[in-house]
Amino acid sequence: MKANAKSGKLSGFSERTSDIVLVVICVVVLLIVAYPLYYVLVASVSNPYDVYAGKTFLLPSQFTLEGYKSVFADPSILTGILNSFKYTIIGTAFSVVVLYLAAYPLSVKDLPGRKFLSIFFIITMYFGGGMVPTYLIVKETGLINNMWALFLPGGVAVGNMIIVRNFFENSIPKEMIEAAEIDGASKWTTFIRIVVPLSRSIMAVMVVFSMVAYWNDWFTAMIYLPSPEKAPLPLVLRNILIKSSASASQASTVAGGFAELNKMTEMIKFSSIIIAAAPMLVIYPFVQKYFEKGFMAGAVKG
Fold this sequence. Notes:
This protein is mostly helical. The protein has helices spanning about 15-45, 50, 65-75, 75-105, 115-125, 130-140, 160-170, 175-180, 185-200, 200-215, 220-225, 235-245, 250, 255-300. It folds into 2 domains: about 1-65, no CATH class; about 65-300, MetI-like fold, CATH 1.10.3720.10.
């Protein structure tokens, strides 16, 4: 089966048949990708024993919201949600600004030392000091228990910066920049009034990448934010799940013993996954069109 270079259709099939084949393939891929999340959603409102018995393949079994009630009953959950929104908004804004300020100069071909700076950034993708040296640096700079410890050590994601740099090189018309400079615009004015407005698509990509990274990050917070009141949502959910884990000492104090505790732990586990993933799933459809356009333009060089 060969692709027809002129028509873009699969040779040997009619146009309608080719469309049907492509739609079927897309539907299969969608089901493969989406079903695990749907399964977790169904499991979060089902009896855990029925889940493991295979009774929730498509629909919930013994519908219950006890898992969600147990999670939201914890007083720290609201604080965790507010913290996560705060860290995600501030961290995303900081990361996108730093990415732009680093990527745009590197996209200018006559920048002095451009090759050296590019190599310097790329080296950091493969070599790092490790967790202990990084922790010591953060500690010596007084950032322990400070939210900026979540942003400053990894402020520049080099892989994302390369994508943004490629976008600037390939998608921003050089003629517009040259015309602005001829009219007397400074480098900063050109960047703010021409480059930034023309790069909204790649900005949407970086916003999504950064939002997902900061929203899901619990390990960095666990290391640098020891105060419980500063914990983000994923770390709060992790702590709730740990507290709900069955143990011999806990089982003796709960009606139903180990079985009842284990059942509640499983419900909390599935519910926590949905609670943590829901905000990003709601936001993504609004930036999808920019995401696709910007990612393709920024990832292709030439």
